[in-house]
Amino acid sequence: MQPFNETWLTSPLHIVDASVGAPSTMLPDLGERYRHEAEEELALDPAQILVSMLLPIGDTLFATPALGALRRRFPLAKISVLVSRSNAGILEDNPSFDHLVVVDEPRSEHAEHKMVRFARGLSELRTTKYDLVINFSPVGALVLRMAGIYQRPLRVHMPLLWWLVGTHSSDYRSRHAIDHYINAIAPILDAPLAEEERQPRMYLTARNRTAARKLLREWGLSPADTLITMHVGGEGFNGRKQWAPKRFAQVAAELIERFGAHVLLIGGKQDLPLCEQVAEQLGNHATVAAGRTSLKETAALIEVSALFIGNDSCPLHIAAGVGTPAVGIFGPSNHVQFRPVGKKAYRQRIVHSNLPCAPCFHFVGSEAPWVPNTCHSFACLKAITAEHVLDAAVELLEDAREEG
Question: How many domains, the chain?
Answer without folding.
Answer: 2
